[in-house]
Amino acid sequence: MSSESNLLPLIVEPDQLAEFIDDPQLLIVDVPLKAESYTAGHVPGAVYLDHRRLLRGEGQVPNDVPDEQALSALFSALGLTRDTHVVAYDDEGGGWAGRLLWTLELIGHTRYSYLNGGIHAWRADGLPVSTENIAPQPSDYQAELLHRQVLIEREELAERLDEKNFAVWDARSPEEYRGERGQNKHLGHIPGAINMEWTDAMDRERQLRIRDYAELITELETQGLTPDMEVITHCQSHHRSGFTWLVGKALGFEKMRAYAGSWQEWGNRDDTPIEK
Length: 276
Known about the structure:
By secondary structure, the protein is an alpha/beta fold. It has 10 helices and 11 strands. The chain has 2 domains: 3-147, Oxidized Rhodanese, domain 1 (3-Layer(aba) Sandwich); 152-266, Oxidized Rhodanese, domain 1 (3-Layer(aba) Sandwich).
């Protein structure tokens, strides 16, 4: 689908979404960190998604991408069709919503938007919330990993670390990046990775919306990340980096990719290079 046919822009403000809220093509998905956020009040018509369904949930890298069968079951349960425009949001500034949108990109479903600031921004703008539990209308969606280029596997990442115009954006905390904190076999960071914690891209004065684009681009460029580069983002489980992937896309970084294995995979192996 071309972006011209999209109902809404990639980053949508609460008042924009409110205008389209009754559009039958729209599927609004609330994918909160805490399930109570949905029951306490959500965007009217929004369906609830348990964020754990975006993860494989088993094996050595449980945070990896689910297989196509699991993704087909997930998106069929949500009622996704080829014509659906998905608007995702959460209760924590965009981590799980970003992971959902990245997953849609991975399966080639490019009609999607992020509600800037999520439920916090919606409530702060005085828009109505609903406590009704919305049951999705199930569909028969066959998910295939059609846009694999949005994903990078550990082997390719390890091989390309020295390339020009190739960079790694580590969205974890500075303590994790420096190897002072973490639950993994090995602590530290991928050699050459640039650290900007995911919350540093959020505007705390504006309900965790994405910060001013010009400021963000300047900060990232100062650190060595420019829009023409191929940028790989990761965190511990590709949850926080769901948001940084989305931010990169919003800022016009055309070659944003994510390493779903993240530090959970990299930091638990003995054959991956690590810096502290």
